[in-house]
């Protein structure tokens, strides 16, 4: 009899080279990091009312913000109605432009907004700007 030797199945050595995969992942990471842009918004959350005649004004030094919880901020500093006029007078004395910008949430009480504008006039503000957003921004 003839003895036949059968070779067993040959093992195929499979290696997965992950170096190109890591390169692609890093390229995607870099792409997304460079293509995304982060806009820093002020820490006071407001929803400004919409106006069709709204136009951009350069940011002024003196901004009074009124949140929908009726919290008042003078340039990012929390104030109340009692000490607003005193602090506003100090800011107006230091500023060359005597203009005050009022940024108020669209859901606030109108009476509070009128009080703030009256306090600004009593503090000798020469100009008063009520901040809105353009209709294109609302869409």
Give an account of the 3D structure.
With 139 residues, the chain is an alpha/beta fold. It has a domain at 50-138: Nucleotidyltransferase, domain 5 (2-Layer Sandwich), CATH 3.30.420.270. It is 35% helix and 17% strand. It is built from 4 helices and 7 strands, in the order αββββαβαββα. The chain has helices at residues 19-35, 81-94, 110-122, 135-138, and strands spanning 50-51, 63-66, 72-74, 77-79, 99-104, 127-130, 133-134. A 5-stranded mixed β-sheet has the order 4-3-2-5-6, covered by helices on one side. Strands 1-7 form a two-stranded parallel ribbon. Strand 2 (63-66) and strand 3 (72-74) form a beta hairpin. The longest helix has 17 residues, at 19-35. The radius of gyration is 32 Å and the shape is rod-shaped. It starts with 18 loop residues before the first helix and ends with a helix.
What's this, in brief?
Helices cover 35% and strands 17% of the residues. It has 139 residues and is of the alpha/beta class. The chain has a domain at 50-138: Nucleotidyltransferase, domain 5.
Search tags:
139 residues, alpha/beta, Nucleotidyltransferase, domain 5, five-stranded mixed β-sheet, two-stranded parallel ribbon, 4 helices, 7 strands, rod-shaped
């Amino acid at each position: 009899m003839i003895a036949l030797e059968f070779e067993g199945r040959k093992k195929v050595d499979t290696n997965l080279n992950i170096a190109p995969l890591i390169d692609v992942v890093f390229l995607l990471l870099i792409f997304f990091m460079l293509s995304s842009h982060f806009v820093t918004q002020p820490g006071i959350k407001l929803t400004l009312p919409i106006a069709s005649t709204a136009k951009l004004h350069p940011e002024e030094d003196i901004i009074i913000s009124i949140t929908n919880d009726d919290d008042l901020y003078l340039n990012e500093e929390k104030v109340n109605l009692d000490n607003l006029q005193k602090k506003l007078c100090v800011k107006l004395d230091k500023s060359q432009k005597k203009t005050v910008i009022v940024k108020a949430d669209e859901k606030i009480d109108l009476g509070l907004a009128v009080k703030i504008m009256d306090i600004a006039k009593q503090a000798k503000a020469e100009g008063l700007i009520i901040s809105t957003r353009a209709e294109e921004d609302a869409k």
